[in-house]
Amino acid sequence: MIGGAMPDLAITRMDVTDADQAAAIDAFVMAHDEGTPFHRTAWLRAIHEATGHRAMLLAAVAPSGKIAGLLPLHHVKSRLFGDAIVSTAFAVDGGILADDPRVVGRLAEAAQALAGEQGNPPVELRGGPAPGASWAEHRDSHLGFVRPLAADDEAELLAVPRKHRAELRKALANPALTVETGRSDALIRAHYAVYAQSVHNLGTPVFPASLFRAVLRHFGEDADILLVREGARPVSAVLSLYHNRHVMPYWGGGIADARRLRSNELMYYRLMGHARSKGMTHFDFGRSKVGSGQAAWKKSFGFEPRPLAYHSWSADGASRDINPNNPKYQRRIDLWKKLPLPVANLIGPLIARGLG
Question: Which residues form the BioF2-like acetyltransferase domain (predicted)?
Answer without folding.
Answer: 162-299
